[in-house]
UniProtKB/TrEMBL annotation:
It comes from the Bacteria. PROSITE patterns: THIOREDOXIN_2. It comes from Klebsiella variicola. This is Cytochrome C biogenesis protein. Transmembrane segments: none annotated. InterPro entries: AhpC/TSA, Thioredoxin-like_sf, Thioredoxin_domain, Thioredoxin_ResA/DsbE_sf. Residues 74-224 form the Thioredoxin domain. GO terms for molecular function: antioxidant activity; oxidoreductase activity.
Amino acid sequence: LLGWCGAALIARLRRGLAFGERLRRLAGVAMLASVALIASGGDRYLQSAGGWSQALEQRLAARLPQPEQKTILQPIAAPQPSSAMPSLAGGSAWLNSPALTPERLKGKVVLVDFWTRECINCQHTLPYVRDWANKYRAAGLVVIGVHTPEYPWERSLPLLRQAVKDGRITYPVVADNEYAIWNAFGNQYWPAHYIFDARGQLRYTAFGEGDYARQEQVIQQLLQENKA
């Protein structure tokens, strides 16, 4: 069991650090610790405790320096023949705007955000979407919130209006109670982001939380493309 722990620890260290002096020193420390543990009889006690080797490995690995995480900037995908913006028809009501169509949105970079008001992940994403809408509106970005209810009580239009007000949402929101827009996009997630260029071609998608820096980079790139 101790041998297995040492092997697991070495594997963990190899993933976190480059080969070299630091790895050899840490491996030596682990070996000395194992010898001392056996000599003191502590290994029999820990074995009886269950799960000790994994806990030891995790504690030691947590003390190691982690590689810095950086956003990798890569060219965004080129539009494909079948990537035109689907229809936005079928919503039961539009808030903050008259009904919009792909044709009316030509010349604008468009972010379509599928959300629902009781989705906690959507609530976490909202501040970023709202910030992008405000920051890049003058540059040509249009954000459209497609509210597709997950539960029957989320179909209430008055409650949706209140959620839009409470969330300080000023960009267009459409109530997609019959899943017309959801189905047109073939969407399966809350939240889901579809980013279209000024020609109405899909260029980027993001599902769930996170990926915020990359999404903002895509928005900036598409706005820059539109100026060229």
